[in-house]
Amino acid sequence: MGSYMIHVSIFHTLFVGLFAGQTQLFDGIAKSLGYESVYHYAVIIDAGSSGSRVLAYKFRVPFTVFSQPNLDLVEEYFEQSKPGLSSYADDPEKGADTIVQLIKKAEFLTPLEKRRATPLIVRATAGLRLLPKEKAQQLLDYVARAIAPLGYDVGPHSVEIMDGSDEGIFIWYTVNLLHSLMNDETMAALDLGGGSTQITYQLSDSEAADFPPEDRHVVPAGRNVTLYTHSYLNLGLLAARYGIFRMEAADNGTSELVSVCVDPIVQREPWTYGNQQYRVSGAPRPEGMKREAAYERCHEVVRRYALRTLRRGPPRPPRANVAAMSYFYDVAADAGLIDVMRGGTVSAAQYRAAAVRACSAANVEQPWACVDLAFVTALLRDAYAIGDHDAVSLFKKVHGHEVSWALGLAYTTVMNRITTAAA
C-alpha cells in the first residue's frame, strides 16, 4: 500500500484525543491524587520545494480512567526558511546547514534532558523528487550527517523523501481530525505545493473498484475507509509557472522567457527557479484588448499545460466539502479573496474573476498574479472538475495549529513509541 501505513495504522483510535483535552477540574483532581502529566516531544522538518519548515510539537498524556491513552497537543512551534532544500543541489553542505539552523530555532521547546528521546524526522517532498536521483540522495546524506550530532533521536529512516501519496493522506487526516469529522462526512483535501499538488478524498465501498489500484489506500479511521489520493508532479504552483513559461518558449532552453500571462509593461523581470535565474517579459497585446480576452489568452495556455502534465485526472471530482491548503490559500489571500489571517471560502468562479482582473492589470508588484490565478482556476475546473460555484474552504491554521502533514507524522510517531513501550 505505501509507507504511510507504518504511521497511520493506529492513527484514528489514538488521534481522536489530540484536541479533546481534559477539563482543568478533572486534571486538578488527578494531580491531587498524585498524577503528574507526562510530556513527549517531536521535531519534524518539511523540506518542501519552495522552502523548508520546522514544526516542533509538545504533547501531554492526560489522565484517563477507562479510555485508551491519548495525547493532547500542548504547544507547537513553526518556522520556515527559503529557498527550499532542492535549491542547494550543487551545494549540499549549505543546504544541510539551512536545516540545522531551523532545528536550532526550535530547540527551546524540547528540554535538554528529553532531547535524546525526541524523534527528529526530515521529509523532503516534490523539490527533491524532481531532482536527479544522485543529486537528491547527496542532499539527504549531507542532511543526515549534519543533524546526527544535534542530540535528538535520529534513526536510519529519519531523513527520506516522502511519497506523494503520503502527503495527500496525512493532509486529509489532519484536516478532518482538526475538524472532528472522522465519524462524519469527511472533507476532501487539496494541497498545492511548489512542485506538486495532491488530491485526496474518501470513496464509498461501491465505487472503490472504479479507481486505479495504485491510487486507492485503505486507512484506519475508527473503521477502515478507502481513500483516493494522487500526487501530480510538476503541477505545484512554481513548477507550473515554470512549465507554462517554458512551454511558451517551445522548450528552447532560453533564459529569456515571454508569456501572454504577464502584462506587457513587465519587461525582463528577474525570476529564479531551480537555482537558475530567468528574465520574464510580457507578450505584446493587441491595442484595446478587453479584460476577458486577456484572461482567455492566458487560460488557453495554462489549461493546455495543466492537462498535458496531468495526463490522467481523478475519475470523478470530490463530492464532499472541499478543503484546500498551501498555495491555494496564498494565491487567494494575495488576490484579496480571503482574509490573510483567518482564511475563508472561495469558488473556482471567484478565482477566475480575480484572474480576469489580474490579467488586465499592469501590476508590476505582482507580475505573476495573472498566471498563478489562471493556473489555480484551471487546476480546480479543468483538472479536478470542481464546479464553478462549489465552495472550497481555505485553511492555513485550525484552532491555532498549522494545517500540515507534519502534525500527523509527529503524533503517530510518538503514539507508536508509547504503545510499543507499554506492550
TrEMBL record:
Coiled coil: none annotated. It holds the Pfam family GDA1_CD39. Keywords: Hydrolase, Signal. InterPro entries: GDA1_CD39_NTPase. Residues 1-20 form the signal peptide. Gene3D superfamilies: 3.30.420.40, Exopolyphosphatase. Domain 2. Belongs to the GDA1/CD39 NTPase family. This is Ectonucleoside triphosphate diphosphohydrolase 5.
